[in-house]
Design goal:
Jelly Rolls, Phage tail protein beta-alpha-beta fold, ten-stranded mixed β-sheet, elongated, sigma factor antagonist activity, Ferrdict_sens_TM, FecR, FecR family protein
């Protein structure tokens, strides 16, 4: 995790394997999220902070939100505090706290989803070194862990790989996650070099 202060007083917190480009556009700071997850705390300056993700542009002023661009899912914006604006041809769309924006479809199309307080805590868990699952498959969970550690989680059983998993786990302890999963699904864990293998055999 890396914290990057910007010249306008805004702050970026980058999750592991995340990349941004920051540049000045006619006197305004612009942040392009290339990949990964970024928690953005936009300052309350004279000009809003400009954010670019997948060709969409957002304006943020005195707001705290996550921008996520991962390979296996649509880009997303999750607002914790303040308002994030999506400029539009006729009217802008405002994203309010506890809201998720799915960046997909045509530029003029906006799909938002309300989030509960628990949902928001799960979305921000990575800032505390945690990873939260709520119904993802074990295979997806293993892929998520691979972003945080050189230890690879391998699900050796196809049926087991499709089992849903839920809970809050430390990103620094994939072996602990594997043991918890094995106990829940009556499986076995074995470690081989930098691989942790979970199977029912």
């Amino acid at each position: 995790m890396r914290r990057v202060p910007l010249a306008d007083g805004s702050t970026l917190t980058l999750n592991t394997e995340s990349k941004v480009k920051v540049y000045d556009e006619r006197g305004r700071l612009r942040v392009k999220v290339v990949r990964g997850e970024v928690f953005i705390e936009a300052a309350a300056g004279d000009e809003p902070l400009m954010i670019e993700i997948d060709g969409r542009h957002l304006d943020a002023h005195a707001a705290a939100f996550v921008v996520r661009k991962l390979d296996d899912q649509p880009a997303q914006v999750v607002v914790q505090d303040g308002n994030v604006e999506i400029p539009g041809g006729n009217a802008a769309t405002n994203l309010t706290p506890n809201t998720r924006l799915l960046v997909q479809g045509k530029p003029g199309e906006v799909a938002t989803v309300p989030l509960s307080a628990d949902d928001l805590r799960r979305e921000l868990a990575w800032r505390e070194g945690k990873i939260a699952f709520q119904g993802e498959t074990l295979a997806d969970a293993a892929r998520s862990f691979s972003r945080y550690s050189d230890t690879r989680l391998i699900i050796a059983d196809t049926k087991l790989a499709n089992e849903p998993v839920a809970g809050l786990f430390a990103t620094s302890n994939p072996a602990g996650f594997a043991r918890a999963v094995a106990a829940a699904f009556d499986a076995q864990v074995r470690q081989q070099d930098n691989e942790v293998i979970i199977s029912r055999e």
